Amino acid sequence: MLALVTNDDGIGSPGLGVLARCAAAAGLDVLVAAPRVESSGASAALHGAEEDGRLLVEDNRAPGVPDDVRSLAVAADPALIAFVSAYGAFGAVPDVLLSGVNRGPNVGNAVLHSGTVGAALSGATLGMRSLAVSLDAADPRHWETAEAVTTHALDWLLAGPRSRRTLNINVPDLPRAELRGLRQAPLASFGAVHARVAQHEADDAALVVRYEGTERSTEPESDAGLLAQGWATASLLLAPYADESVQVPGLGDADG
Question: Which stretches are transmembrane (predicted)?
């Protein structure tokens, strides 16, 4: 089985090495293909830089990636990397997609905007088992804790059937001995940040978007709340699908 390791922090992030080592330890063949530059907030966008109709790809070893693992920098958002990999862009088609380890949490309904989660959801829609992992710090110190939790989560993921679900893991940036454990959790109402839109002071035609931290303590049993309490969290996310349980009315005569 082949695992594609990607992220939205770019090819220079140590999180790629963490996931590559976990995949190799699980007995998977590994390919690292990550954005050439940071693509945070890209969601499932399919942006990429082309030259004569070809996606720009170059060999570039991510930090901590084993020497025997192929490592590529791609001028593309992570979801596009997932998409083209499913059509053999980098050789064999991956069976598993691992995204992260992200610098900073991906919790709550804000996961909709995450490039880390967007890549994983794209992989799920393309038939891959998919896992997104994030570490709760802008400049993490305890990558080993993320590696331990990822190893456990990946074992569970590989033992189950393929599905349209993505396993979203968030890990507190704590020493392994201080981690309280792993809890399955619902998504918080929004997530780690929210936006506030206001008029620009000097330009009535311009809008300013300010991102501010949400109060995690108001939803202590959510993924954001449990993460703040020292738990790693696991949330199963469904890739887009058509919900036929509710009938949308037709246009009367147009229905015949």
Answer: none
In total, how many domains does the chain have? 1
Cross-strand partners of 149: none
Euclidean distance between CA atoms 32 and 26, whole angstroms: 16
Q: Express each pLDDT in 162-185 by its tens digit.
A: 888 999 999 999 999 999 999 999
- Checking if the pLDDT of 200 tops 90, the result is no
pTM above 0.70, yes or no: yes
Q: Residue 184 falls within a domain, yes or no?
A: yes
CA separation for the pair 71, 59 (Å, rounded)? 6
Question: Is there a contact between 39 and 77 (Cβ–Cβ < 8 Å)?
Answer: yes
Measured at the alpha carbon of residue 137, what is the angle toward residues 176 and 103, in degrees to the nearest 5?
A: 100
Whole-angstrom distance, CA of residue 168 vs CA of residue 157 = 11
* Average of per-residue pLDDT across 18-36: 98
Q: 65: domain CATH number?
A: 3.40.1210.10
The candidate with the shortest Cα–Cα distance to 119, out of 130, 103, 110, is 130
Both structure tokens of 85 = 């990999």
